[in-house]
Automatic annotation (TrEMBL):
Signal sequence, start to end: none
Keyword terms of this UniProt record: DNA-binding, Transcription, Transcription regulation
PROSITE patterns tied to this protein: HTH_MARR_2
Domain HTH marR-type: 1-133
Family that this chain belongs to: Belongs to the SarZ family.
Upper taxonomic lineage: Bacteria, Bacillati, Bacillota, Bacilli, Bacillales
Name listed for the protein in its UniProt record: HTH-type transcriptional regulator SarZ
Record bears the keyword Lipid metabolism: no
Species whose genome carries this gene: Peribacillus muralis
PANTHER family reported for this sequence: TRANSCRIPTIONAL REGULATOR, MARR, TRANSCRIPTIONAL REPRESSOR OF EMRAB OPERON
UniProt subcellular location: Cytoplasm
Any one Gene Ontology cellular component term annotated for this protein: cytoplasm
Molecular functions per Gene Ontology: DNA binding; DNA-binding transcription factor activity
Amino acid sequence: MKKEIVKINQLWTDIYYQLRYTHQEKITHQSIRILQVIEKENEVGIKEIATAIQVSHNTASEHIKRLLEKKYVFKSRSGKDERKVILRLTELGGQVLHRHSSLDEEKLDHLLYENMSSEERQLILNAFALMGERVNDVYTR
């Protein structure tokens, strides 16, 4: 593997480890992945969840059942096809997902505004913006 790829992965995991939220809820990694799919994709049902996390329809359905019980997701009907059930995040589900997949904003604020110059902050923003723009080229292949 290319050295740059290894280095980016190492840096990213180091950054995430240091700047992550302290988790308050007990939730599996698989459940977080499901919440991410629901948040990031458009009109997701059980079939799309099963495909995204590479499990059977029944297994995906069991995961969703637990997320419904915890009130992290709710079911609605598709605007395009009333027969199709769509999964959506509740406000609580969005908060849980944020805490388990985002950087702690207080820690990030401290890092960026107490330890970096405006030029350094701009460099970081530009690098993340560039990666964000280009990630769609890789993802859609």
